[in-house]
Hints:
Elements: H1 11-34, H2 40-52, E1 57-60, E2 65-68, H3 72-82, H4 84-101, H5 106-129, H6 140-168, H7 180-202, H8 210-232, H9 242-251, E3 258-266, H10 269-275, H11 277-294, E4 300-305, E5 308-313, H12 319-334, E6 337-339, E7 342-344, E8 347-355, H13 361-378, E9 382-384, H14 394-407, E10 416-425, E11 431-442, E12 446-448, H15 450-457, H16 462-483, E13 489-493, H17 496-501, H18 504-515, E14 522-527, H19 529-533, H20 535-548, E15 551-557, H21 563-569, E16 574-577, H22 579-582, H23 589-604, E17 608-612, H24 617-626, E18 630-632, E19 640-641, H25 642-651, H26 674-677
Parallel strand pairs: 8-9, 11-13, 13-14, 14-15, 15-16, 16-17, 17-18
Antiparallel strand pairs: 1-2, 3-5, 3-8, 4-5, 6-7, 10-11, 10-18, 10-19, 11-12
Helix pairs in contact: 1-4, 2-3, 2-4, 2-7, 3-4, 3-5, 3-7, 4-5, 5-6, 6-7, 7-8, 10-11, 11-12, 14-16, 16-18, 18-20
Amino acid sequence: MDAARPRLAGPDHRRAVLVTTVPAVVAAVPLIWASGGLPPAFWTMAVLAVVVDARPYVVPGRRASSVILPSICFTFGIALAWGALPAVAVQTVAVAVAGARMRHSPRRTLHLTVQHAAALIAASTVAHLVSLRVDDSPGWWAVVLICLAAVTWMLARYSVAALARVLTSDAPPRRRRRGHADLFATAALLLLGPVVLVAARVSPALLPLALLALHAVHRMVRWAGEFERATRFDPLTGLPNRRGLQAAMAERDPDRRRALLLIDLDRFRTVNDALGHGAGDRLLTRVADRLTAAVPTHDLVVRLGGDEFAVLATRVEDPASARRIAQHLTDELSRPFPLDGTPVELSASIGIALQSGRRDDSTLLREAESAMYEAKERGDQVAVHGPDVAEHTPDKLTLVADLRTALRRDPPDDGIVLYYQPQVAIATGEVVGVEALLRWRHPRRGTVGPEELLRAAEPTPVMRLLTARVLEEVVAQLAAWRRDRVPLRAAVNVSARDLHAGDIADRVGALLGRYGVPADLLQLEITESALMADPHRVLETTTRLSRMGVGISLDDFGTGYSSLQHLRRLPLAEVKIDRSFVLGMTTDRGDAAIVRSVIGLADSLGLRAVAEGVEDEATWRMLAAAGCHTAQGWFHARPMPATDLATWRRRYRPVKAGNRGEIDSGPAVKPSNDEGAGWPPSPAKR
């Protein structure tokens, strides 16, 4: 395949034209002179060969382009009729014209000339050895010999091209797949040569009619190029698409270390919503242009779809060098994009997967996606795939499959069990609510904790089935407590997948209506990590839920990002102070200061402050002194099944705070159930 090199411009181009065309004409004259007197048919074919090469055919490839010279139609016929010398002379001039037209360097033009000269000499030699004569009425045997000469032409030309690549490149040779359009167009032009030759001998006036056939071949090549671009290139940005990336990864040297950087634009949806999809498309093209300008020519920039891009870096030594590349890309993307007079700020999350040797390319892409999601979850801009990055291992896939199978069964056969941990008002000691925590009794593994379960299920559609199952049971339990005149509020964690789906408000409304439960008895807890991927959609969903009367709680407050912005924009009812701060507030002044600040901020915004991880009386006293509204933790009770909760409530004696900083009664009664006691001091939650 003849790769089209960067084009020359200005004085360089004019100098290249002189350097290539003048020597070509000078070299052609003695070759034609040595061939003796040539008939008018030869001169007509020679002139047409030079003329048609002013418009060579270009077949777009993956990283370069194939050049097909239409002059081979005429020079192949000349070689069959009058030998190699006049054919090489005409081809030399035609290649010089094509090189000048495409702004090739003199070196590139010389390479192309040598390839075609070798092909013509080989085809002419075969024709001479088999005594091929193309007269005015060739027979079937002559047609077979012409095909043999054409095959020899192609073998010789592409063999010389491959040899030139080996001699001029430092990279080890590798097998290349030639496109069907390239081979088919070349074969069509060669086999058209004898037809043109016969027409020239009958009457040279018929030769211009061959231009129509050449035009048909040109259109075929053009359509093939458009089809190639449609299948391997993104129509919006012009970058290779996912299929183009897979082809590039398959073709590259497997012994060279490389890295795949998967780039996902953060909050791109807000641009579409604010400025329209047309502006979003223009922004994507500018992102593509900036990435292309920032990436070296030996690397590949790809648009995978939507707001996802990828860079295949081929000269990566170690994870540190891959991180430097990713940091350079994030710096480039962080500069504002001018769009319709408005500077648009963007950021990106980049996942990196390293590969050396002959590992599967699909594995590389999957690892890069896993690292990218890890970067989003942590709020980092860059993450490198490694042992700490969550991925879909066979064990996790089996766990998710078992969970899906279990959720098809009716409760309690599905093994899903909900535990409830009381939430106590600090000022009065009254139990004001509970938080529903998930457990799953696997038929073979035993009890699967929420951390392991959610880590496997949350990236999959099974998460929505699990949330629906939990909501159903919690709302049914609220209805039962309400019938028993125990109006407790229950909090349920929901995942980012549930919030982004958008229909959770409809499902919650249908459940509340079916069981006759007031909306203010249900509270949904969201984490700040759920807001990172699509804050606009989360805001829309939570606003609908809040208008229904469902309370919204921001869980794990203080461990995420843009917390103050979330407090200002989201329709929150409470914030939950993360247990990592509450557990350390009696021994760490910094943690205590953070807890007091969060309580004061929540109070000024009219929100409840709930402290998680209250394990001892000293922590309880400090929270009471700081004015915290609600506490949750083992100081009052461990998580327990709903049946044990009623027993616990009968035995519970409130721990009250009279004046701020004073405790009026003794510690709370702990539950006696054995299963609840088996959980660690800081259990993972659901």
